[in-house]
Amino acid sequence: MQAAPSSKRRATVLDCHLCFTGRKATSLLVSTKATAATDSYALVKQEFPPGFWNDEKINSLTSSYDPESVAAKEKQMQTLISEIKSMFKSMGDGETNPSAYDTAMGCKGACSGWLRPPTISSDAPVDFTQPVERRSLPLSADLFERLWAVDTVERLGIDRHFKEEIKETLDYVYMYWNERGIGWARDNAVGDIDDTAMGLRILRLHGYNVSSDALKTFRDGNGEFFCFMGQTQRGVTDMLNVHRCSQVALPGEKIMEEAKLCTQRYLTNALENVGAFDKWALKKDLQGEVEYVLKYPWHRSMPRLEARSYIEQYGANDVWLGKSMYLMPSVSNAKYLELAKLDFNNVQAIQQKEIQDLHR
Q1: How many angstroms separate the CA atoms of 326 and 92, rounded?
Q2: CA 277 distance to own-chain centroid
Q3: Radius of gyration (Cα) for the chain, nearest Å?
Q4: 234: helix, strand or coil
Q5: Residues 290-314 pLDDT 10s
Q6: Would you say 53 and 70 are in contact if contact means Cβ atoms under 8 Å apart?
């Protein structure tokens, strides 16, 4: 009777290593079958094309690294970082808007008589349209504002500068998380799939315990997803957020798999027929965002490449329905983009110099 193979011998592959011969990489796979008397080894040889980072490629890198230039950019970046941190701290509390006009108007409607005169200068004509709109909106979209700010800094690759602010922001959102979905503001009784999907994805990626069952609230009898209860149309932006959310599914989450298939079909059709037009926002390159997400799902995307792509797609002057109504500068802002460009170029210059130094 043959002796039973040991646990170490049960493996069909003992070792795998690469041997580099000239410019070709060779993989040697060593397999074994245990017998009572002898061990037989089969050697499988596979050849791969040359690596991308050869001598010629490394030597051709033109690094813009200069100690004085890097120091100047670092100083400029620190100024922007401080300004963006202030933006995080100044977000609305969900009760009253930071605007003094809104606070006064929300407390007492008779304050309108006091609010108007101070806005009038000596002889200059005054447009009261925007102030009047602001006075009628005392509540701020606190959850919407926070989620979009976190999503923006993460997609632009500058989130490492705001770890403390992101933690405080997500703690706030999680405090008001509802398993039936969330809306723009913490006390908003009407949830929407846009904020719910973004909240679910970001909170889950940061380790918060949230259930995908929240998406079930936003399905009709045919299994299709919608943004608000009773809505018959959908927007590209909200379906894009649901699709991104579906990419962080846990094993066995059927609702996430269904959301992925449904939104993938919708977004593909939108690209082919309407060019990714959205009724909620006028964005710089929404079509490019959709194309990237469909081509490079979260588990296949690389953070720095995603940041490079989103720097091109990001519009600091994008027009959002919520941004226009509540005047929220942290939803989209030129400071994000300026910092992202400085940071990306700085890191790239440093890394190019480092790889050249290591190659010597």
Answers
A1: 10
A2: 20
A3: 27
A4: coil
A5: 999 999 999 999 999 999 999 999 9
A6: no
